[in-house]
Design goal:
Layout lengths: L6 H8 L4 E6 L2 E8 L4 E7 L9 H26 L9 H9 L4
Antiparallel strand pairs: 1-2, 2-3
């Protein structure tokens, strides 16, 4: 017998404070809400029940979605600082801070 999957369990495993999981009208969707960066995005997952996917599949979908949104935020932040990147370490500092190129 397969273990029951819960939204809370999925979100705890993903561990991203900006991510949430909702269900509505026979499907699920992740929301990514980061008001500090003026960002709200959604990702639909067209399954009727949580058990239609494994916990690993839910985690992969959620992490991939969150990472893609965070990459866009990171790119937007880089563009907003492009004129301030004359300092030799400014670009490296931004990359290190966001952790994308470690």
């Amino acid at each position: 017998m397969q273990k029951r999957i819960t939204k809370k369990e999925i979100l705890n495993e993903i561990n991203n404070k900006n991510l949430d999981l909702h269900s509505d009208y026979g499907y699920f969707y992740f929301t990514y809400s980061d008001m500090d960066n003026d960002t709200f995005e959604t990702k639909s997952v067209y399954v009727a029940k949580l058990s239609d996917l494994s916990i690993c599949e839910w985690i992969d979908i959620g992490k991939e979605f969150a990472n893609s949104v965070e990459y866009v935020i990171w790119c937007d932040n880089i563009r907003s600082y492009e004129f301030d990147l004359d300092a030799p370490d400014a670009y490296k500092t931004l990359m290190d801070y966001n952790g994308f190129f470690e």
